[in-house]
Amino acid sequence: MENGYSQSKEESAEILRLILQKMVKHPAAFTPPTYAVWYEFLAGINPRLNEEMSKLLDADEPLSNETTQHLFDRYISEINPEAQNKFRQNMQKLLDGLASQANSTSEDTRRFNTDLDKFGTTLNNDPATPLVHQLVGAIMQGTELMQSSVSALQDKLLESKSKVEKLQQELQNARSEALIDPLTKALNRRGLDVQMKKLVAKPEFQGKRISFLMLDIDFFKKINDNYGHMFGDRVICGITAALTAQVKGRDSVARLGGEEFAVVLPNTLTQGAFTLAEQIRKSIEQAKIRRSAKHEDVGGITVSIGIADCEITGNWQDALSRADTALYVSKKMGRNKTTVYDSSMEKIDHN
Questions:
Q1: Closest Cα partner for 260 from 277, 279, 236, 243?
Q2: Among the four residues 19, 56, 324, 344, which has the most C-beta atoms within 10 Å?
């Protein structure tokens, strides 16, 4: 998966400094979603968010809690609720610490400025030498206090920098895990949806067609009944490995649930997809999978495949549904077959 948080330590520290400057100018509270929105905007890693934020800022619209939450939900949040809640809690602790230190520094600055005003008034009224020395000493003490306060803030920011980087990595890991099937490490349904959004947005694919393969393991229930669910999982992982070995480049593999898979083939016409599907089908039919407990190789496992395509900017969910219809036809025709969708299949009842 792509990782948008690739900034160096120095870059992330600079972004953190800019965020604090920007956030204080808007009414939105110092919450994790607000911080995340500003971070991705200032880092320039989220084009859709940048476009929306630029419109709001150009219009001098103040960013409220509701606005930043909307931006976060629409353009950033892709993680499961548990991981998102953990991220919020950890980020809130970090931001609370920064806010507390910043408030302390602000109060020290206010007191220092007040003292300087008093010193200036006293010097104007009585410039006697002993008093001047006394005032200079007091100024030096105030300066040392300010330096100490600023140094504490800098130390806090440096400490927070490493915490931010850790939180960013945790967020990215949580996003990735939410898009991956835990058994096969292929994309899951949500991962497929995210992958399609990325493909649709890429300029090099505009005007191109995209093909989909829908695959289903034949007689998978019998495999589980005869050899057990542990072996069934090995079959699913073996099929995933076979699919992954056959695809390349921007092609991707997703497990949609159970024994059903999808293969996404950008910039691939139906004939090319059919050729690849047949290669996949034959390689799986010829393969054998080891039963580790019995030291036995099981062969003869087959898959049925359906194919459909559409414009890359078209309704790809409908194309995937048509591929599923073609898959159903392959099953009805005896399994271990590849079928390309055509309009005559529209009235087929799957029940």
A1: 236
A2: 19
- pLDDT digits over 130-186, tens only? 655 565 566 656 666 665 666 666 666 667 666 666 766 666 665 666 788 889 999
Q: What are phi and psi of 295, to 5 degrees?
A: 50, 45
Domain assignment of residue 150, given as a range: 9-178
Pairing outcome for strands 252-257 and 303-311? unpaired
Domain-embedded: residue 57: yes
Give the pLDDT confidence of 20-68 residue by residue, as tens digits.
Answer: 888 888 998 877 788 889 988 888 888 888 888 989 998 888 999 899 9
My answer on whether 292 and 330 are in the same domain is yes
- pLDDT-derived band at 12 (thresholds 50, 70, 90) equals confident
- Give the separation between CA 214 and CA 217, rounded to whole angstroms: 10
From the candidates 40, 165, 259, 285, which is the catalytic residue?
259
Question: CA 175 → CA 74, 77, 296, 332, distances in Å?
Answer: 14, 8, 39, 39
Q: Show the CA angle centred on residue 152, arms to residues 148 and 158, nearest 5°.
A: 145
Q: Distance of alpha carbon 151 from its chain centroid, rounded?
A: 35
Q: In what order do the strands lie in the sheet with 303-311?
A: 252-257, 260-266, 209-217, 303-311, 338-340
Q: Examine residue 4 and state whether it is found in any structural domain, yes or no.
A: no
| Whole-number Å distance between alpha carbons of 302 and 312 | 30
pLDDT in tens, 76-106: 765 555 555 666 666 666 656 666 665 566 5
**56-68 pLDDT per residue, tens:** 998 888 999 899 9
In the predicted structure, residue 307 carries a pLDDT above the cut 90: yes
Q: Which residue has the higher pLDDT, 200 or 114?
A: 200
How many folded domains does the chain comprise?
2
Q: Two tokens at 74?
A: 């629409």
Active site residue 259: yes
82 falls within a domain: yes
Long-range contacts of 314-318 (CB under 8 A, 24+ apart): 316/196, 316/200, 316/210, 316/212
